[in-house]
Design brief:
35% of the residues lie in helices and 17% in strands. It is α/β, with parallel strands linked by helices and 406 residues long. The strands form 3 sheets. A 7-stranded mixed beta sheet has the order 1-5-6-7-8-10-9, with helices on one face. The two termini are 46 Å apart.
């Protein structure tokens, strides 16, 4: 369940360990991202869970509502959520204080807000006061954007990080670990003698960095050794396999997959015909439709070849009348596949048909105006315009997820 304490200071005196999940949903609410997030929550071994920011692709109320219901349903221990750079002004209404500290008997875990690539004066004051209150010599500090480091340049500025170092002051030797998210990978470094771990494999697409071996999607399990120092273990996220496959689910997936494969061939042949008829702009539009159908087929093919498939419930409403349990396979098919895979396919088809009607591409006597077409890399919907969209209106994926169809 999401921890929304009244105070920024939280007592978990019996806690001996905790689970860390980094950047689960910054690339949109696709079916794969949700399966990884579920694996991180349901498989957590720690006494509480810390999500290091980017629980939303766009930081807007509807997205917070969806993911907060998802976390509440599948997490059976307190979940403390940090604010990331994708998270917006509605964050605290759903997840509570962006600055907070969890006091356990043997360690103190401090979460700080630097989602704007800097620590505010209020955040630094909270950090200083918390360090003064903590009696342990084992303090773990987390925030979203990494400090300046030797691995990734996507970090805070040296000037802003210096303000944090000044706030640390005489307490530097009490900090045993720095934890950050943001980068969609995993790497370690050392900052002024303090171990730094950056983890962002909780559901967002894994990105490659130079000198870094790209890990699979993962969570971190953090416990204490015999001397009370943090021990970090990387836990691969494997979609839950407790739901048995059914003929109904396979039939639905295969049917939609066959439709998308047929659409792909049909669009490709039509594009070739239009090109031979000296209608290059119509051919361009059909190539866009072809890429959309191929993207949908790939998404469904991934589900068909994952055995057994992990099917999760994701409710868009307020969730008050829903039992806190896994749905049956039939219910899950109707819920998740219709809202994620099938809805994505239906949205892609509707958008393409709208473009056909708007441009008149089906009319051989109609002159088609030149246009640009952009494919959402998360859900496969096509958008037309002079430049790529800021975000996908279907799945929430940010603009960098789009590619232009040439």
């Amino acid at each position: 369940m999401i921890a929304k304490p009244v105070s920024k200071l939280v007592q978990e005196l019996e806690a001996k360990s905790f689970t860390v999940i980094g950047s689960p949903c910054s690339d949109g609410y696709g079916g794969e991202a949700l399966q990884y997030l579920h694996a991180g929550l349901a498989g957590a071994e720690g006494d509480f869970i810390a999500v290091l920011g980017d629980v939303s692709p766009l930081g807007r109320d509807p997205y917070y509502k969806r993911v907060s219901h998802f976390i509440d349903r599948y997490a059976d221990r307190p979940v403390h959520v940090a604010r990331g750079n994708h998270d917006g002004p509605d964050f605290e209404a759903y997840f509570g204080h962006a600055d907070r500290a969890v006091f356990a008997e043997e360690f103190t875990f401090i979460m700080l807000d630097n989602s704007n690539r800097r620590f505010s004066d209020e955040t630094l004051r909270f950090f200083w006061e918390t360090m003064a209150l903590s009696e342990t010599r084992n303090i773990i500090v987390s925030f979203h954007i990494p400090p300046p480091n030797r691995i990734s340049g996507d970090s805070m500025s040296v000037a802003d990080w210096t303000k944090f170092e000044e706030a640390v002051g005489v307490w530097r030797n009490r900090i045993t670990l720095l934890l950050c998210g943001h980068a969609h990978t995993y790497f370690e470094d050392e900052i002024d003698g303090i171990r730094l771990i950056v983890t962002g494999g909780g559901g967002a697409n894994i990105k490659k960095l130079e000198r870094v071996v790209s890990p699979p999607h993962h969570a971190l399990e953090i416990s204490l050794d015999g001397n009370g120092r943090p021990v970090v273990r990387q836990r691969p996220l494997i979609p839950n396999s407790n739901v048995s496959e059914s003929g109904e689910m396979q039939d639905v997936l295969r049917h939609v997959y066959e439709i998308q494969c047929r659409n792909y061939v049909t669009m490709r042949l039509r594009a070739e015909e239009e090109f031979r008829a000296n209608r290059p702009e119509a051919a361009h539009l059909y190539r866009a439709g072809m890429e959309s159908s191929l993207s949908q087929a790939r998404i469904i093919h991934r589900l068909l070849t994952t055995s057994p498939a992990a099917v999760l419930s994701f409710e868009d409403g307020d969730g008050k009348d829903l039992p806190a349990k896994r749905l049956s396979v039939a219910e899950a098919v109707n819920d998740v596949l219709s809202k994620r895979v099938l809805l994505g396919a239906a949205g892609a088809e509707k958008t393409f048909c709208s473009l056909l009607a708007k441009t008149g591409a089906n009319d051989p006597d109609e002159d088609i105006e030149p246009n640009h077409y952009y494919l959402c890399g998360s859900c496969g919907v096509i958008f037309a315009g002079s430049e790529e969209p800021n975000y996908c209106s279907t799945c929430g994926a940010p603009g960098h997820s789009f590619s232009e169809v040439k």
